[in-house]
């Protein structure tokens, strides 16, 4: 096979012929049917994310793939990480270099991905571990058909949400839902809710660095046919109860950043908003509603489809591997033998910190906070009483 060549260019260096080839690759591979793979997302994120670039892969002078990415020191990450929920090489089926091949071509000390779409290893190797994302896939009967099926199979859950809707209306006034909202003040309200949630739960504040919030604001201003970002809001009487920021392209609608008034949690305003957003958006032709990684309990009641992606950390042989194993050993000592169990959690926390923070000092501060939070959680689990 002809050797793989890579050219690293800025997103603004790609010409219309490159973007046309990009769009043709998306059309050829259904696995790339997500707004995160669209040229519009890369163009906007390329302007906002520090040290953004695109790797253009070619063989024998012919372009075979594009990989939008960002650099943080010697590390390479998907463009707009940690906010990029799907990533991989944009290519025609069977032509994309694997994750390992891409890492080698880029010359990165490490390449960290959380939701890689496409081949990961060479020669039968499959580095990393699989993770599932979950979706609502509407059938021919649209939202009404989905809701009827879900209510029949998960009656207790959905009847409870109907009661919550009536309760909120009785207490606060009629419910009103609007979607397609692009008000910067509404987005700032949502970002404030998320930052408070990160403080409360001990997670890294991904909006403290500034550029991540700028990206959400910039995407709201992108008005291209078939692609965009917008918010939906739920009001109870005059009170704003919940907001959800979503990214959409083609027939795909990706729920991205939800937030709700914590004082109204008993009424499940976030869940009610997701349901009403699906109802309204389905009337516009959206057919797949992506809820991201499985985990939150309500998703099992909503979702009827899933896809498998790959989480992996590709290290260049040498110091990086040694340091990684030493870190696991330290966690084993501090966490009383739970290093392997903690490694995935710590790796995800570190990936978010490294992606957000662009200076060594900020990254070190975030890493220390993340390690402390992970070990404290492990210690709490170890002292929890065991049922007799």
UniProtKB/TrEMBL annotation:
<keyword id="KW-0808">Transferase</keyword>
<dbReference type="InterPro" id="IPR038740">
    <property type="entry name" value="BioF2-like_GNAT_dom"/>
</dbReference>
<dbReference type="InterPro" id="IPR016181">
    <property type="entry name" value="Acyl_CoA_acyltransferase"/>
</dbReference>
<feature type="domain" description="BioF2-like acetyltransferase">
    <location>
        <begin position="156"/>
        <end position="300"/>
    </location>
</feature>
<dbReference type="GO" id="GO:0016740">
    <property type="term" value="F:transferase activity"/>
</dbReference>
<dbReference type="Pfam" id="PF13480">
    <property type="entry name" value="Acetyltransf_6"/>
</dbReference>
<protein>
    <submittedName>
        <fullName>CelD/BcsL family acetyltransferase involved in cellulose biosynthesis</fullName>
    </submittedName>
</protein>
């Amino acid at each position: 096979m002809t050797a793989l060549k890579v050219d690293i260019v800025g997103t603004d260096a790609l010409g219309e012929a490159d973007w046309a080839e990009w769009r043709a690759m998306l059309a050829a591979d259904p696995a790339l049917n997500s707004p995160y793979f669209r040229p519009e997302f890369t163009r906007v994120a390329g302007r906002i994310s520090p040290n953004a670039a695109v790797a253009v892969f070619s063989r024998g002078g012919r372009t075979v793939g594009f990989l939008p990415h960002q650099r943080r020191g010697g590390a390479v990450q998907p463009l707009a990480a940690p906010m990029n929920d799907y990533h991989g090489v944009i290519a025609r089926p069977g032509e994309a270099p694997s994750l390992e091949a891409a890492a080698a071509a880029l010359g990165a000390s490490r390449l960290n991905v959380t939701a890689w779409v496409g081949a990961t290893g060479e020669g039968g190797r499959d580095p990393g571990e699989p993770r599932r994302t979950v979706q609502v896939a509407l059938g021919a009967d649209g939202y009404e058909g989905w809701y009827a099926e879900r209510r029949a199979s998960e009656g207790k859950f959905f009847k409870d949400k109907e009661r919550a809707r009536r309760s909120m209306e009785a207490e606060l006034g009629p419910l009103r839902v609007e979607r397609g909202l692009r008000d910067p003040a509404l987005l700032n309200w949502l970002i404030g809710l998320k930052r408070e949630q990160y403080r409360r739960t001990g997670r890294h504040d991904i909006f403290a660095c500034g550029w991540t919030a700028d990206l959400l604001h910039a995407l709201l201003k992108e008005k291209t046919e078939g692609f965009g970002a917008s918010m939906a809001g739920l009001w109870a009487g005059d009170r704003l109860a919940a907001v959800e920021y979503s990214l959409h392209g083609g027939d795909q609608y990706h729920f991205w950043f939800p937030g709700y008034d914590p004082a109204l949690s008993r009424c499940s305003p976030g869940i009610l908003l997701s349901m009403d957003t699906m109802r309204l958006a389905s009337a516009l032709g959206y057919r797949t509603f992506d809820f991201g990684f499985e985990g939150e309990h309500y998703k099992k009641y909503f979702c009827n489809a899933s896809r498998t992606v790959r989480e992996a950390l590709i290290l260049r042989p040498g110091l990086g591997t040694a340091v990684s194993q030493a870190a696991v050993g330290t966690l084993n000592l501090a966490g009383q033998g739970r290093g392997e169990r903690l490694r995935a959690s710590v790796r995800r926390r570190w990936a978010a910190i490294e992606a957000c923070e662009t200076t060594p000092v900020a990254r070190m501060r975030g890493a220390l906070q993340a390690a402390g939070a992970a070990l404290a959680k492990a210690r709490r689990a170890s002292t929890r009483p065991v049922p007799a």
